[in-house]
């Protein structure tokens, strides 16, 4: 027998009685472990033969497969949507963190330029603070996965860092981000 079309294979077919469709719904709602025996336990007043005849006559296997496929598709679509939302949130968070990091570097560079303008040389504490702030930002960027930053410089090395070209390179780095 060729079944008349329904909007979806799991919908009630024209000519399918409400009682027969209720049996099909009881069957479909059981999920992957569905059995006719469970239908008889959940819907009283029917025989096994009647349920079997409904299953054959209304093509339950094809309809159930279409339902299961649709449900799998819906779950997959929901997961894809969720992953896209997560990716967008992550991208937005990364952009915010990058902007924060750039601002930290700019603030530190402004403090270094101010210190120079006042005639105060760089010292280990100033550079250490710069490195600590940059390190904190890096930890935020990478979820805490960074290598430890250790700044152990001699006075001679500090004098080398207190050169306009070094500060210009740091400044350029801050502006390029």
Care to give the gist of this entry?
Helices cover 70% and strands 0% of the residues.
C-alpha Rg (nearest Å): 35 Å
Helix share, percent: over 70%
Principal-axis shape: rod-shaped
The helix tally amounts to 7
Largest sheet: none
Written as H for each helix and E for each strand, in order along the chain, the element string is: HHHHHHH
- Between the first and last Cα atoms, what is the distance in angstroms? 70 Å
Q: How many distinct beta strands?
A: 0
Low-confidence stretches: 145-152
Q: What amount of the residues lies in strands?
A: under 5%
**What's the overall average pLDDT, rounded?**
78
The secondary-structure class comes to mainly alpha
């Amino acid at each position: 027998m060729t079944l008349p079309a329904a909007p979806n294979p799991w919908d009630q077919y024209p000519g399918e009685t409400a009682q027969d469709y209720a049996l099909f719904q009881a069957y479909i709602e059981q999920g992957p472990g569905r059995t006719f025996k469970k239908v008889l336990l959940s819907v009283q007043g029917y025989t096994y033969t009647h349920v079997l005849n409904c299953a054959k006559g209304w093509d339950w296997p094809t309809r159930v497969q279409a339902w299961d496929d649709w449900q799998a598709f819906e779950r997959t679509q929901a997961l894809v949507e969720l992953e896209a939302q997560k990716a967008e949130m992550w991208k937005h968070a990364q952009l915010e963190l990058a902007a924060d990091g750039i601002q930290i570097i700019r603030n530190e560079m402004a403090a270094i330029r101010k210190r120079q303008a006042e005639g105060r040389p760089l010292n280990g504490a100033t550079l250490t603070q710069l490195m600590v702030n940059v390190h904190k930002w890096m930890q935020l960027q990478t979820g805490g996965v960074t290598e430890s930053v250790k700044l152990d410089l001699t006075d001679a090395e500090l004098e080398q860092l207190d050169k306009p070209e070094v500060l210009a390179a740091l400044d350029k780095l801050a502006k390029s981000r």
